[in-house]
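Lecture notes, unit on binding sites. The following record was shown on slide 14. It pairs a sequence with S-adenosylmethionine.
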Amino acid sequence: MALQGDGSPMNIDSELAEIAEFWSARYRAEGFIWGTEASPCAHEAATHFAAADAKRVLVLGCGYGRDAVYFANQGFDVTAIDFATEALALAESWATSGDGAGQIEYVRDNLVALNVPDSAYDAVYSHRTLHLLLTRERLIRAVAEIHRVLKPGGIACISMRSPRDPTREKTRGSAGEDLEVSFRPGHRILFLSNAELGEIAGRCFSTIGQQEMRERESKTQNYDVIVHFLVLGKEADSRRGFAETGFKRDE
Ligand SMILES: C[S@@+](CC[C@H](N)C(=O)[O-])C[C@H]1O[C@@H](n2cnc3c(N)ncnc32)[C@H](O)[C@@H]1O
């Protein structure tokens, strides 16, 4: 257990705690890893959020907030969550720099078990993050959490690294999944086929749209990564949720 910004406990297992440390170390060493411009997925998501008349947007795995800042500048009321302390420290320092990056509530939390009330947001966004959960079980829980915190009729835009992404050496994760090991020691990625991801999302959500998108890996790596970008709708009269995922929330 680790402490969240507001003092309530952040529920996190030891493998995720290691991943949070990995990301903190990267932000400490590399700062604004992807620059301060929003990703192409954020532009696409903002169009969907505006069309759905969303006001309150929750960003999961926000990093230092490049996409959260973009949403805030588009007029959305943004809360942004990450579990890496250095991500939030960088976000706060950017927000207080007077560089147009304010108006966002940053919270330290684990997106697999969020300290967020039910139906609190009109829209949820998560970019290049869910593949870091490393197991299908965590991914299923995270999708159920996204569904839970959305209001009925709410919309989610999520992206995960696509299996069409150039793969590197494979290894086996703690739950037996095949994982890619990237060139960075300690950086592991869960690749699911679009069909597998669609099946998991489809347990709670209806799929509004999906497409492949690309962006540069980072400021220092001059090649593109490919993500699978999904636009998901929570039905207005939805009674689906954790029961359909096969888990109970407090399991
Ligand atoms: C590849 S970075 C992308 C950051 C941001 N979405 C962007 O594109 O600029 C993934 C981020 O997700 C965060 N993250 C990974 N797993 C998480 C979890 N279980 N809960 C909260 N944050 C998580 C990491 O700390 C990291 O900041």
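Take-home: Residues 2-245 form a domain with the Rossmann fold fold (CATH 3.40.50.150).
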